[in-house]
Amino acid sequence: MSISPRRAGVALAALTALLVSGCSGEPERSRPTPSSPAPAPSSAAPTPTAADPAARAAALVATLSDEDLVGQVLMPYAYGSSATKVSPGSAAGNRALAGVDTPAEMVAKYRLGGLILVGFSADDPTSGNQETTNVDNPKQVRALTDGLREAAGRLPAGPAPFLIGTDQEYGMVTRITDGVTLLPSPLAAGAAGNPALTEAAWRAAGAELAAMGVNLDFAPVADVLATRSTVIGSRSFGADPKTASAQVAGAVRGLQAEGVAASVKHFPGHGLTAADSHTDLPVVGQSRAVLDRTAFPPFHAGIDAGAMAVMSAHLDVKAIDPGTPATFSRKLLTDVLRGQLGFQGVVITDGMNMAPAKRWSPGEAAVRALNAGNDLILMTPNVGQAYDGLRAALKDGSLPRTRLVDAVTRVLTMKFKLADRPAPALSTLDSAAHRKAAADLAAAAVTMLRGRCGSRLTGPVTVTAAAGRDRTRAALAEALTAAGVKVVPSGGTVVHLVGYGDGSKDLRADATVTVAMDTPYVLAGAKSPTLLATYSSTRASMTALAAVLAGKARPTGRSPVPVSGLPATICGT
């Protein structure tokens, strides 16, 4: 087949840059419609001359039409818990979002590079931009991901694995919760201070995500918690850049060892501001020197650990590009992230349905994000408008073809790095080995900030909790009983639990023990003679807490954030 001089130039540029020999491509295809699916890959498509992922990516890029190139940089959400069969409400949502009925049709119509699965809980600070929930249980998720891959496999870019991502951070932001091993929060891992435990736990997490067909995790959070941010909070590994760096690196290694790409976020550092980028454009007012010393080290550590992706944030970084959200800042993404931190992988936007990105139309926002240096556009509020805007910009030159080819080559390179790994069986989920990895990390996290180290509760215990935490209260009561501590409904020694969103009004003056299951700041106002922190409310964390209360384990954790008037620990240094 012959190709136009312009397309030949694109192919030659991509292949020369990656030291691969040239190959011929296919003519541009017309945009498919739901009734006219995208054509299958040509049997005449060239075979890469090497197994190297970059070489395979460059060879595939050379065969793709404009429609395919544009589709590969889009990663929207979709409505429905199945790829092909959805409820009338989900079909209506997909029609408003993308002009199709089902997720599979969305993949086919827009030649998508990937899809994000969403879901949220009551405590999730990101729930405001989660338009739908399409994760129910592991079996359903695996069926959904299988269906999406079947649809994507018929596309010209089908030889590269379809990207299916989700925000499985553990702690407050955990999209898939039923039937999986739940790790303690990142802040708990920071308290444990043992990167080897973190790596083992996140390796278990990676295996379970892979078993469900998820190959991209929008985690770990690399934000240093320099402020009392409720939107970041226990999603962070802590306030110390050095500690956070080691933890981020461990999480990256664990995930990617199991064939799940890690996306370190939110660059250049959401922990330096308390504002919420879902609704506002937070201002990061610190100097460049502070950024270099505080915000950037965990991202650098994630990059050094081999992170395949970095997520950009909707932040106004005054010291580098004032007034421009980092997502749309070439200075931050191209000059700093790539040029100074040396990142060569895939840059992914934070949700483009968040307020700071919606100041522009979906098409213009997508073009601006790509031109700034992003490679994947996440969660556009309108797939058709983003797709058409990118094609129009490619045609009129406002999106340079070389920038689009570079982005797609990076995306496909990441995909080929994830290729050729069979998905583990669903039976690996919540296995004994995985539960042990989570339990070990949770046990190492428990911290005593006031009290007598090594002491145990005597007499009957009554477990209480702030409103809405009945399930966690019951889990602790069950764990205490198993540890040999008598639990009574009332009249016993009070152990009181507080968690995400709780404040001084949620404390109990008569509690002998107060336990913080999220950020520990609230403990500064507690009057209890014993103060403990688990930073997490998982069953593993409650079991670890029960062991400490029963005197069977020592609380060896250290608070990874400063708490006014309290030490990081009273148990050791």
Task: Summarize the structure in short.
The chain contains 17 helices and 15 strands. It has helices spanning 5-17, 53-61, 66-72, 88-98, 103-110, 138-153, 186-192, 195-211, 241-257, 288-304, 330-340, 362-372, 383-396, 401-417, 432-445, 470-482, 539-549, and strands at residues 74-75, 114-116, 163-166, 216-217, 261-267, 283-284, 309-312, 316-317, 346-348, 377-378, 447-450, 461-465, 493-498, 513-516, 530-533. Its EC number is 3.2.1.52.
Provide an overview of this structure:
By secondary structure, the protein is of the alpha/beta class. It has 17 helices and 15 strands. It has helices spanning 5-17, 53-61, 66-72, 88-98, 103-110, 138-153, 186-192, 195-211, 241-257, 288-304, 330-340, 362-372, 383-396, 401-417, 432-445, 470-482, 539-549, and strands at 74-75, 114-116, 163-166, 216-217, 261-267, 283-284, 309-312, 316-317, 346-348, 377-378, 447-450, 461-465, 493-498, 513-516, 530-533. The protein has a 6-stranded parallel beta sheet with strand order 2-3-4-5-7-9. Strands 11-15-14-13-12 form a 5-stranded mixed beta sheet, covered by helices on one side. It is globular and about 75 Å long. The N and C termini lie far apart (70 Å).
Q: Could you name the ranges where pLDDT drops below 50 across 5 or more consecutive residues?
A: 1-50
Helix content: 25-40%
Tell me, what's the shape?
globular
Number of DSSP E strands: 15
Q: How many helical stretches?
A: 17
Oligomerization category of the chains in this entry: single chain
How much of the residues is beta strand, in percent?
5-15%
Describe the main β-sheet briefly: 6 strands, parallel
Distance between the termini: 70 Å
Mean pLDDT equals 89
Our Rg estimate from Cα atoms comes to 24 Å
Q: Find the structural class using helix and strand composition.
A: alpha/beta
Strand order of the largest sheet: 2-3-4-5-7-9
